[in-house]
Design a protein that fits this description.
alpha+beta, Triger factor/SurA peptide-binding fold, Chitinase A, domain 3, four-stranded antiparallel sheet, globular
Length: 449
């Protein structure tokens, strides 16, 4: 967990490695020989100089270890150590050149901003800053090292916002043209579909009586789904599929990656529609169309959630542990039928929604802070979460309803604008980083003999 946090620096700069241009004044007699993570620990030495500022072998080694840990956590294959070390060195060179420009440009990050970033990391991991420091210390990372990384990241972010982000614009004409091109695209291989399923499995050895009973079970589930019962709840009640824990969602994928039976059953359906019963070798399937889109278009519908919550704000009088225990007690009483969630919210919640019994209304993705939304998205209607910590305090969440709605024409346009802007930002950033890298004086040094 801790290495995932402190790997921020590598994650943000490694993207530049494949796009670096040759530097002016570069001396590269076969390239520097970088020590592997386990080698040459005792002696440190300079492996590169960027505009008179050194990069040491220990810096490369530490960042290499973090990069390897991050790749392992993501389940990605790892390149050979020397190749990854060269990528990490290039990333550090780019970072060094950008930080130099940021300082020369007068960009500063005060302690309050670093404090806020540190607290945000702790909240996202549902711990306090003291516990974050303790866990980092167990991995040999000092609080001062974390704060230095956060300060650098904030400085790089502000530099990018000023040098790149502020210059990128997407016109209405570009949005309209992109929409026309994508909507006129008739290539079926570019269609993407997201389905959810209820699978009533049929064993290979099922008798005629067992088959009839399982088909009747599937028909009951289908009838309830078409009557408007929550599909996620039905998945948990009826489905034998491996994706049962995720609400039966099969995921957004190209049409070619779905079985032909599924495509035939959902071909004429719109988003939110339920298929007829589908019989396959695995059993009986009930399919719900969650999303249909072209691969070049953002989603044209959104899943909204409606929830209640109870918020206890932390203070010298109320510690995180005490708030957690109090909300755990509330949850136990509610589940036992001894208390009503809305009544407890009115009485105890320290939030503007308290007067409405904690009702937060219909919310689209991104409306709540990530740590709150992540937990809420895992709930089925009627479920109550365990207490969770956010930047606002400690919450108890009850999900009441979930629905899928189509975006308005204006919202669709804004989604496309954001898509186009992200692409422009990436291209502009890489071009800017290349140019800055090419202007830097970089000297690569051989290790001492």
């Amino acid at each position: 967990m801790t290495h995932r946090l402190v790997a921020l620096t590598v994650a943000s700069v490694a993207i530049l490695a494949p796009f670096c241009a040759p530097a002016q004044g570069l001396r590269l007699p076969g390239g520097p020989s970088l020590a592997a993570p386990q080698a040459q620990r005792a002696v440190d030495y300079i492996v590169a100089v960027v505009n008179s500022e050194p990069i040491t072998n220990n810096e490369v080694r530490q960042e290499l270890q973090r990069a390897q840990q991050q790749l392992a956590q993501q389940g990605r294959s790892q390149p050979e150590a020397q190749a990854l070390a060269r990528q990490v060195l290039e990333s550090l060179i780019n970072q060094k050149a950008q930080l130099q420009l940021a300082r020369e440009s007068g960009i500063r990050v005060d302690d309050a901003a670093v404090d806020q970033a540190e607290q945000s990391i702790a909240r996202q991991n549902q711990i306090d800053v003291a516990e974050l420091h303790r866990r980092l210390a167990s991995d040999g990372v000092l609080p001062s090292q974390l704060r230095a990384q956060l300060r650098d990241q904030l400085m790089l972010t502000r530099l990018r916002e000023r040098e790149v982000d502020a210059r990128v614009r997407v016109s209405d004409q570009e949005v309209d043209q992109y929409l026309r091109e994508q909507q006129n695209n008739s290539d079926p291989t570019t269609q993407e579909i997201n389905l959810a399923q209820i699978l009533v499995a049929v064993p290979d050895t099922a008798s005629a009586e067992q088959l009839a009973a399982l088909q009747a079970k599937a028909q009951r589930a289908l009838a309830r789904a078409r009557a408007g019962d929550d599909f996620v709840t039905l998945v948990r009640e009826f489905s034998d599929g491996s994706e049962r824990a995720s609400g039966g969602v099969l995921g957004l994928r190209t049409a070619s990656r779905y079985p032909p039976l599924f495509l035939q059953a959902t071909q004429g359906l719109g988003e939110g529609d339920i298929s007829e019963l589908v019989r396959s070798g695995a059993g009986f399937h009930i399919l719900k169309v969650l999303e249909k889109t072209r691969s070049g278009l953002p989603a044209m519908s959104v899943t909204q959630s409606r929830a209640r919550h109870i918020l206890l704000r932390l203070s010298p009088q109320l510690t995180q542990a005490a708030a957690h225990q109090q909300l755990t007690d509330f949850r136990t009483r509610i589940l036992a039928g001894q208390a009503d969630f809305a009544a407890l919210a009115r009485q105890h919640s320290q939030d503007g929604s308290a007067a409405q019994g904690g009702d937060l209304g219909w919310a689209s993705p991104g409306m709540f802070v990530p740590e709150f939304e992540e937990v809420m998205n895992q709930l089925a209607p009627g479920q109550i979460s365990a207490p969770l910590v956010s930047r606002f305090g400690v919450h108890l969440i009850a999900l009441t309803e979930r629905r899928s709605i189509a975006l308005s024409a204006r919202e669709q346009g804004e989604a496309v604008r954001a898509l186009l802007r992200d692409k422009k930002l990436q291209d502009a950033y890489l071009s800017w980083a290349q140019e800055l890298r090419s202007r830097a004086y970089v000297e690569l040094r051989e290790p001492p003999q």
